[in-house]
Write a structure and sequence with these properties.
4% strand
Amino acid sequence: MFYYIFQYLEDTFHFPGAQVFQFITFRAALAVITSLIISLLFGKRWIKYLNKKQISETVRDLGLEGQMEKQGTPTMGGLIILAAILIPTLLFARLDNVYILLMLFTTVWLGLIGFTDDYIKVFKKNKKGLAGKFKIAGQIILGLVIGATMYFSNAVVIREKIPETEIVTQNITENTIRSNETANYFAKESVKSTKTTIPFVKNNELDYAILLSWLGDGYQKWAFLIFIPIVILIIAAVSNGANLTDGMDGLATGTSAIIGATLGILAWVSGNIIFANYLNIMYIPNTGELTIFVSAFVGACIGFLWYNSYPAQVFMGDTGSLAIGGIIAVFAIIIRKELLIPILCGIFLAESFSVILQVSYFKYTKRKYGAGKRIFKMSPLHHHFQVLGYPEPKIVQRFFIVGIMLAVLTIITLKLR
């Protein structure tokens, strides 16, 4: 909103300083500050309201140390996160940007699904909450919307690399080209594409359409048949992974902030033609605007962590966990870095696989030997370490350290090929 207001003031009245709102970095800084303020101020009042109305978490007795002390802690704190993301984005981002619109839709849609789940648990006293099939259906619908928009919208494009002899330098002079090297730059025209980035590979782009090459000539026009299901799978996997990670005070919030900051860096360099060329990565026009959204996202997570750190004053519930997982997945898909998710979201991946392995192995051994056996002391993975006797704050902090290491590894994949 402010972008358009100050653009009008500049165009009509030549208002001093109005041009500063043209800069993505300035608006991103305002977004993160505003997000933090909203989280801290709104969060305090919302927690008081939840306590007053006794809207609290029903904690299962898992026999873990300190587990039952969490009984009575307010839940549905994810609304703090949603407000701290949506308000700064609406204030400072360009709302004619297709990527911003997709991220806003993702936030609201998954927030509503999570809110419905929490509402059923808290107010209807149904511990199971929203049936799993409805959550999956909601994630499939989101995947269809994101995938179809990414594939069919003319606003979603990339710039292909071309040889130096055909280059349109666009803000890069020939003086930057060394006489003893061949420089590659980007074409003048943007094109539709289903290409994505492959980590650790030189000339690292994969076109999903190639998976249908067995169809023969013209197979590219059927690329949506493979692209959209992949989008759905990624969204469901990461969203549910974040949901499983939300089992200790501050764990999901902190790791999500680390992931969000990393995605912000990737979005900014991918949307900047100079840095995209220097790093020899895919240039995606207009994705730089996503820096404003992800700044609000990081600010929301850090602001919520103020109240969610051990001992938590509030839990985010599915309102927050489903939303932040979906946001991370869609964001990575938009900037064509979804194949980096197993590295960047390694914590989510480990939590999800620990549950899958635990359940699968238990069922297998029960069927074969008549008595089920377990790989981990308890799943998800963070509870395994808790059963081993590690204090909750130490587990969370060590997961943060691992998350930071994975984030650094993700960033250096830009040059490590």
